Fold:
Amino acid sequence: MERIQTHPILGDSPKGKLVSFTYDGQVLQGIEGEPISAALRVAGVMTHRYTKKRHEPRGVFCAIGRCTDCVMVVNGMPNIRTCITPLEEGMDVRTQYGASDKREEATL
Amino acid sequence: MIKRYDLIVVGAGPAGLSAAIEAAKNGLKPIVFDENAKPGGQLFKQIHKFFGSKEHKAKIRGFNIGDELLREASENGVEVVLNATVIGLYDGKEVTVKIGEEILHYKGDSVLIATGASENMVTFKGWTTPGVIGAGAAQTMMNLHHIKPGNKVLMLGSGNVGLVVSYQLMQAGCEVVALVDAAPRIGGYGVHAAKIARCGVPFYLSHTIVEVTGAEAVNGVTIAKLDENFKFIEGTEKTFEVDTVCVAVGLSPMSQLLKQAGCEMKDTPGGFVPVCDDSGATSIPGIYAAGDVAGIEEASSAMIEGRMSGARIANYLGYLDEDALQARLAELEQALSSLRKGMFAPENRGKLVTKTEEGIDTSMSLLEKGYVADDEIEKYPGVTKGSGVHPVIECTQNIPCNPCQDACPKGCISIGSNITSLPVVKGDVACIGCGMCVASCSGQAIFLVEDDIGDGYGTVTLPYEFLPLPEVGQKGIALGRDGKEVCKAEVINVRSSTAFDHTHLLTMKVSTDMVMKARFFKAE
Ligand SMILES: Cc1cc2nc3c(=O)[nH]c(=O)nc-3n(C[C@H](O)[C@H](O)[C@H](O)COP(=O)(O)OP(=O)(O)OC[C@H]3O[C@@H](n4cnc5c(N)ncnc54)[C@H](O)[C@@H]3O)c2cc1C
Ligand code: SF4
Ligand code: SF4
Ligand code: FES
Structure:
């Protein structure tokens, strides 16, 4: 999805500083301080994790840190709610399978 | 060591902040905790002009009201702690707060819970597919984080949240393919529905989602019509290609902390809420509740409720004497009761109101399709004929709102002392075409019409809040109230002004016989 450049009511969106981070090893860019999930959505990433038992995809649902559908493994830490965690330069963001970033974990 | 405060407020939304401000003005030292990184609760996601009257800050956009509240809070020394989730409330008015990985304990001589509400969910096949989001999430993404939630969106839910967010999605540049609701009638304000309908968004009432498709992300959604028993009627399925489905099916008070503390609770159609008096005092002395957590309403009422609780708490702790309290409460009570009047008053929830207070039939087309039909519109007192430019006010429901009356420098528009009365255009006063009424109308329901400018043409001036802004000379088509093409149109004037607060006034030239039908401009 795109960023809104200029909004009829809110005007020009703040510019912000572009930073690089990795998503499952792939280098992406986002704006420093925006939620990780926002940068991912702009890059077209909709699935953040797969459920443990049924291996079903989940993505952002509430965007305010309540539903935990958006959790990912960030800098090695699982269960990070990406919708409320600010993006930093060099972050390592990975899809979460069940409770970890190991694909097998969700298919056990 | 447990830290002690006069007043602990949980939630820095409009209710919590207002309460803390009122208490601080009376000499208390309040502290406010909010789990968010930013204060303001829902207010900063709301970019439309609010309803109500001047005392409710009507016609000011939600996020600007939020800025005002924050300024007032800091001027009065209100301490706000962010990223702080309150996880426990005990009846000794002890509060546990999680900040980062740390758990801290605080004790208040009084505690106000203003935690707001959470969004309800409905389940359907595919509801967990990435791309199905809450309406609040859509607002958060587009209005706080400046990204489009999706490109093509279907909205489920026609209450004010569904309507307002649909419009905001269009303002953010998304396409809204349909607005769907299982109820047989639109739940929110008719003026909110009308401004979406005239842009061409179809409404499907008595419909709901059968299935959302897409393996890794939403790629389509199928809806179908419901019979009286809420069962799908076979053969009525419609499929839309979308990447996002937005769900706005109501809010529930987040009252867990109050229950945990042992406050007396009650189950109401609007959710599980604490039993409390008008100023928010619960069954436990010193514990109060205000805003959506005490019953879902609006930001305007949440702010007044917060002020009432703040004053009551000041009295409880001996900072405000009984007479002063009663005087303040009476003043606030009046402001609050005016917001609870009209067709959408709490006692009318879910009911079909068939006539306006003036005795005019309710437009069923508005309730079922989102727009007042062409042959109904002239029944309403804001819709008059006149020579020269004159306002046409398509505000047809009794809602608590009156900025249009205050806006007109000439006194062309009257609502009177009853805030929910329909606006009336006074025939004996000459309109100068300044457009203040068009820009001030929170419902974008006012148009300026001039029947005859010569050569068989007339003009229609309408409020316009989209980008790109059409230019003078641009040709296109005029859409009717139903969003369907009515005739060719040419933009002959575009007015913008700080006084209009981002609502532009677009004047289009259409043939004279279409001036009472053309209500939106679409560039070719
Ligand atoms: C799309 C939409 C459109 C709306 N349009 C209008 C309108 O036109 N006019 C109008 O008057 N109203 C409108 N409203 C309603 C209005 O936003 C709410 O009624 C109002 O915000 C309620 O205020 P509040 O302070 O009770 O709750 P909120 O604004 O929800 O604030 C509650 C705060 O509490 C915090 N919180 C919750 N739990 C905890 C905890 N355990 N610990 C710490 N902090 C916590 C939350 O983070 C939040 O900041 C609209 C709402 C929506 C969703
Ligand atoms: S255009 Fe100006 S003068 Fe005419 S009704 Fe509206 S506010 Fe009044
Ligand atoms: S016409 Fe007046 S009362 Fe109706 S929505 Fe507009 S400002 Fe409010
Ligand atoms: S989307 Fe719900 S917690 Fe992030």
Residues 36-42 of chain A form the longest helix (7 residues). Chain A is about 10% helix and 30% strand. Chain A has one domain: 6-97. Strands of chain A lie at 6-7, 11-12, 18-23, 26-31, 49-50, 57-58, 71-74, 77-81, 92-94, 96-97.
